[in-house]
Each structure stands twice: as structure tokens, then as C-alpha cells.
Amino acid sequence: MMLTAQTAPTSGLPRRTQDPERLAPFGLMLDASAPEGAGLSLSFRPTRMLRLHVGGTHNGVRPGARVGLTLLPWKGALSPALTLEAGHARPANGEGLERRIVDRTQMPIHSFERVGYSYASALLGFEWRTPRRLTFFVRGGVSVMRLYSPGIVGVDEQFRDALEPANFHGWSLSDIEPTAKLGILWSFG
Fold it and tell me: Where is composition skewed (Polar residues) in this entry (predicted)?
């Protein structure tokens, strides 16, 4: 009696395997940077070379929001990256940081507490992608910032007499600042 090895019939369908270069299209990004502070964003990667993100930020005084895109020209675990972002943080109200730190009967420090800002950033850096869908990144660049204050809008009546006349009116100021970012991205989907 002779035994023969049987082979599994082939159905003509391609066998599904996990492609290590296949990228998960969605992600959760956590980072720390200047000018926006700490950020948490959702990301979407429609192509291998482009990632979009939208999320919230907090600079220790007030929350903000941002949107951005990252261009990744190379395939592989280590890639250079170009990131463009825009964000905004509204001025804090009269119950801001200084009033929480000092006596609540004191007038808020107008020049710090009541300043909002918008920014646009361009950053260059590197991303290192691990096999476990984690990506670490470091970037540096410049931000164009527009700072502004609404003046006496929202300041309690009892504090208005203590303000300098220059603080009655709103103001704005534009500046170019260096910026840096360090973060991690977890990809899924």
C-alpha cells in the first residue's frame, strides 16, 4: 500500500495576508508643542504620502482647536515629514488663571488673562513608525501668530475703574516665533 500526500485544493482565490506596508487610515495623536501646548487629535491618512488631523489643544490657560496636514515623502519605518497647521484659542474670560491663583476679589491681570491668539505653523521633522502601529515624531519650524485682546468686554463693572485707559480698547499684535513639537500617533483601522 502506498501513501501519497494530499494537497489542499486551490480555489483560485488569493489568500489574504497582512501586508506590513499597509497603513491603518485612522489614528489618535498626542503631542506637546509651542505655541498650542498639549494637543489631542484624530488623524486620517487617505494616501501613503498624506495625513490629515483635527483636534483640540490646551496651553494651561485656555483650550483651543487646530487642523493640519503632514506630507510623508518616503516609505519605511523612518521618514522625513513636513507639517502645516493652523489653530485658534479664544481669550479667556474674567475667571482665568490669575483669579484662581490669587484672591478672587482682585482684578484680573488684563494683559495676560484676556489674550487670545491664532497661528499658522510650518514644521519639518522625522517620524519613526514601529511595527505595532505606533509612530513617534519630532518636528521644528516657525509659527506666525496673531495675538489679540477684546478690551473691557466681559470685565466686571467693579473692576473697570481700576483699568488703565489704554486697556479699554482691544488690540492685536502679529509675531513670528520658533516652534517645536514632540508626539506619538497610534494608528488603527
Answer: 1-10
The pair phi, psi for residue 119, each rounded to 5°, is -150, 155
Provide the β-strand partners of residue 116.
148
Please count the structural domains in the chain: 1
Rounded Cα–Cα distance for residues 57 and 66 (Å): 7
- Residue in 113, 106, 104 with CA at minimum distance from that of residue 59: 113
| Alpha-carbon gap, residue 136 to 29, rounded angstroms | 10
Residue 100 within any structural domain of the chain: yes
* This prediction's pTM: 0.70
Handedness of CA 89, 90, 91, 93 (dihedral sign): negative
What is the per-residue pLDDT across 112-162, written as a single tens digit (0 to 9) for each? 556 788 999 999 999 999 988 899 999 999 999 988 776 555 555 555 455
**Residue 176 forms part of a structural domain:** yes
Cα atoms in the 13 Å half-sphere on the side-chain side of 6: 2
> Of 124, 125, 128, 121, which is closest to residue 185 (Cα–Cα)?
128
Q: What's the length of the chain?
A: 189
